[in-house]
Amino acid sequence: MVRSVTQFTELDAGEKISAEDFATAEMKPPFRYERVKGRLVVMSPAGPEHRHVSKPFRRELGLYWGLHPDIVDDVDIEGWVTITEETDRIPDICVYLCNPDGQETVPRRVPDLIFEFVSAHRGDQERDYIDKRGEYYAIGVREYVIVDRFKQSALQLTWQETDFSERVLSATETYTTPLLPGLQIPLNEAFA
């Protein structure tokens, strides 16, 4: 049975939650919440290590957006993306490119780029590398980047007809993408 709630806490993990309740309920900080297969997933807040690794991405993507409003429509930290009628994800960073034909709004609007920063827990890692990879491909995310401080690398996944193509970037390389011409994010800063 789906329970109707007005506020989620960490104690609600695993509860069956409707899309409407997920969209309207208050979420008790500092936890982060997703809805997967109709059930509430509670995640720890981003700690200092997570924030350190994401900092150059947050800074450079925000700066790029400010300098190129003709290319980037929005950069959303902890955005909201509806994957299916039963699954809602909260990616670390969503980038939406300008699209005059786009009629959808968040959470149904598909980000062009998504960035996830790997956390220490095995379940979080499996979610980023396996579950979200399949979900983001299925909804048409053009590029999905998994930044992994534990491996000191980033996995750049680019949408292709049959699957994402993969490019592994080491800590000494610079992240670039044809979707954001001129953007350069040196990974050594993220992994310092």
Largest sheet properties: 6 strands, mixed
Which structural class should the secondary elements be placed in?
alpha+beta
- Which stretches of 5+ consecutive residues score pLDDT under 50? none
CATH-derived architecture of the largest domain: Alpha-Beta Complex
Taking strands numbered 1, 2, ... along the chain, how are they ordered across the largest sheet?
5-8-9-10-11-12
Determine the N-to-C terminus distance.
47 Å
Question: What's the CATH topology name of the largest domain?
Answer: tt1808, chain A
In the residues, how many domains can be counted? 2
Give me the Rg, rounded.
Answer: 17 Å
Describe this structure in words.
This protein has two domains: 7-43, no CATH class; 48-190, tt1808, chain A. It has four helices and 14 strands. It has helices at 19-24, 48-67, 122-139, 187-190; strands at residues 7-8, 26-27, 32-36, 39-43, 72-77, 81-84, 87-89, 93-97, 113-117, 143-148, 153-159, 164-170, 174-175, 185-186. A six-stranded mixed beta sheet has the order 5-8-9-10-11-12, sandwiched between helices. A two-stranded parallel ribbon has the order 1-2. The chain is globular and about 45 Å long. 30% of the residues are buried.
